[in-house]
Amino acid sequence: MRIAYRNIAIAPDTVRVKVGSTIQWTNFDNIEHNVTSEGGPQHFASKNFGERGTFEIKALKPGVIHYECTIHPATMNGTIEVIG
Hints:
Strand content: over 45%
Order of helices and strands: EEEEEEEE
Strand order of the largest sheet: 2-1-4-6
Number of helices: 0
Largest sheet: 4 strands, mixed
Radius of gyration: 12 Å
Oligomer: single chain
Helix content: under 10%
């Protein structure tokens, strides 16, 4: 599953994946972003990454993961629903 960080927003901001799926974020903005979980069955935090930078995780457990870019939390927050 690919998620784009573009125009200080997330597209798509809500996704559904199966356990074992890889989720990859790509930054298309010319400013730094990050990916930080805010709750759910899996915790992760990327370093800040610039334009064309990527971060990826593997979905390990079913449940709903909420995440955000801690630099732009008002407009950059998303949800990953992981199904078994």
